[in-house]
Structure formats: structure tokens, C-alpha cells
Design goal:
The protein is an alpha+beta fold. The protein has eleven helices and 14 strands. A hairpin with a 4-residue loop joins strand 9 (about 215) and strand 10. Helix 5 packs across helix 8 (about 315-330). The mean pLDDT is about 85. The chain binds zinc ion. Zinc ion binds near residues 348, 366 and 367.
Amino acid sequence: MRRVVSHIRLCAVNHAKIATLDALATEYVRLCQQYTTYFCTDAPPDKYATPCFESPLSQRWQRVVIQHAAGIAHSWRSNYANAYQDFLDLLAEYKEEPEGEPPVWKEWNTPTLKETVIQANANVALLQPSEDSSFDYWLRLSTLECRQPILLPVKLAAYHRQALAGKALNTSTTLTRKQSGWWLTLSYEEAVSIQMRHDAPVLGIDVGIANFITASDGKKYGTFQGKLAARHKRDREKRRRKAKLRACLKNKGIKRLPSTRNKKLARTVRQEINRAVNQLYADHPDAQIAYERLNVAGMKFKARRMNAYLYASNLAYIPKQVSWGALKRGIQARKVKSAYSSQECHRCHYAARTNRPSQQTFCCQVCGHTTHADVNAAENLASRLGDTELQACQSRADIKALLARRHEEWQQTQRLAVVQPPAELARQPA
Ligand SMILES: [Zn+2]
């Protein structure tokens, strides 16, 4: 697991060195943008691609740029593919049971690099311990001028030194240009082994607004309702007032306008989510976790009125924290396919929207199995962890067909159970 130590200030550097670094960064970002667009539209992202754009940067720097751009394009492409698959699933769902407006796909723009960030490796930026000065390291950085590297002094704060003590640093470094100057990020690898038996009990978790996390054993963690919702409502009123004030100030030609964003509320929501996730792991130290990949766009689409809630509740942050929390603790947590997990009956596998008479309740239309809707979903997710047949399904339609087959099998076992008693009765004397 990679641990990063950021916010290391590149200090006491003279103006000439800063100017050299800025000039290098300008070329770096310009070329990185070219390759990013290229890898997103014209060619698959390839770290080893042959250089195809003119640049004053050295061969080594160009390779670093190509690697950086390939990384950005790779995650953009996979996010795009996931979002498009989510859209197709949503469309398929809509075609099954049309309700309201059909979902619409909005084409994505390719990424625009807004920040000045250099992701370097030892070929262009070599970190060397300093023995003869008050600095901790020297960063030996190649520049636009051939064979004229600059030496940037790196001084660690006490807490940086503590965090890095005895650690073997990675040779890759990140340099970030902020208004306040240049900042350095270092990293090291920390081995966390998963110490979990293969037959450890599986806990399924369902993510939602009413309860941030519902576990398949029925336990619930965190909620957006109550305290947070009340705060959010107050916040919205405040934002509305601020927006009016902004409009008023803007008319008067005032340049510096007050922000309408509330970072504090977003932070509180994240803290509540962290607390919920920590409690989940404290209660289940020996379980392996099955969780769903969230289709946030789909959830937004289905619950327009809840849009503001979804924004504030930051739902996508929950699975991220769950997976991070597991990694940190050496617990196994895996994503499972979530199609129909909230409509499928955990007992008889009958899947239909009518199984959900309300947001909260699950009531199977065939076998009558009744439980909390989120618990039913979490139970389904838990049993999908070892379900290789379901995990192998390529599409929503495949999953639906598989569930229909399992329901059919369930019905057959029921028929046998129902048919047997009268046959036995007939054998008895009248
Ligand atoms: Zn059922």
C-alpha cells in the first residue's frame, strides 16, 4: 500500500531556480495535455508509446510526461466506460418498466489539466540525502538545458521526519506549483498483508441515504436523516441568502464575491461517514466484506428530488472509505455485481420492482418474505461474493435470466414440499 507524505515545501530557493522550474513546468504541462488528449481520443494509453509531439524537453522528460498522461487517460477512459455502462443499465431498466423521462447520455469532455503538477522519477529528479547542510535532502532536477540540473533543497518538518523515519522512499516524486510556491510529495510502500481465512464469514453491505451502511446482519451505521439533514436544510437557506447578496454585489461591480459553497458541511458529512465505517469494522473484525459498485448517476436520475441530499451525503465516498478501511486493516473487501440486488428476494430469488412497496420495505410478491429493504439487498450482496456463476454474467439481462432460473428451481422444491403431504395422508386409513 502506498503512503504519501505531502506538503513538503521547497524552501529557500533563489529566484533563478524558481524561474527555471517554472519554465520546465510550462513545457511539461503543455506536452502532458497534448498526450492526455491524444490517449483519450486517438490512441490507447501507452506508457511506452513512441514520442509523437515536438517538445524542447529532453527524451527522459518526454518519457515521464508520456507516463503521466497515459495514467490520466487510463483512469478517464475507465471512468467513462463505467459511467456509460451505468447508463446502459439504467436504459435497460427503464425499458423494462418505463417511468418518467428516459435517461439521456451526455457526452464527456476529455480532461483539461488545470493544475501544474509534475510526476517525476529518478531519471529526471533524484532525491539525495544531504549530509553537509541543514537540509534533509537535495532534489537534483534535470531542466530544459542539457546537462544543467538544478539542486533544490528539501527541508522536512518534524512531523514529516517522524512519518518518514526508517522508511525506504519511492524514487518517484511529485512537484506541485501553488500560488505559495513549489511543494513536494514523497511516498513509500507499506506492506499490509491480508490475514483472513478463505472461509471467513461474508458480510454484505448496502449503501444508502436513510442509512449510510446497512450490513447483512441487520446492523445499521450512520444516517443522513435527522441531524445532518437539518443542518443541510439550514445550509441551503443560507446559500440562497448568500446568492442574493452575491447578485447584489455583482451589480455594484464588486470583484471579490463571497463563496456560496459550504465546505464545512461536506466535511462533517465525511466525518460521519468515517465514523460509520470505523464502527462497521470494529463490530466485524473477522468478516470479509462484499460491497457494490455504486451507480451514483443512476441514483441521481431515479431520485431527482433527492438530488441535493445525494450531493450532500456524498454517497460515492462511502465505498471508497470501506475499501480503504479494509486495506488499512488487512481485511478482504471485494466489489460484487449489484444488478437487481435491491429487487431480488433473498429467499426465493424472485426479482421485481413490485417487491419494494416502499423505499424501506421489501415484501416478496411470490413467497411473502418480508424484511427491511436494505437488509435484503445487503444479504444478496453477501451471497454474491462466492457466487462465481453470477459474477461471470456479462450483462444485466444475463443476471435477470440467471435469477429467473434460480426462482424456477426454488418453485420446484416448493412444489415437492407441497405435493408430498396429501400423498402420505392418502395412505392412512379413513
Ligand atoms: Zn420470495
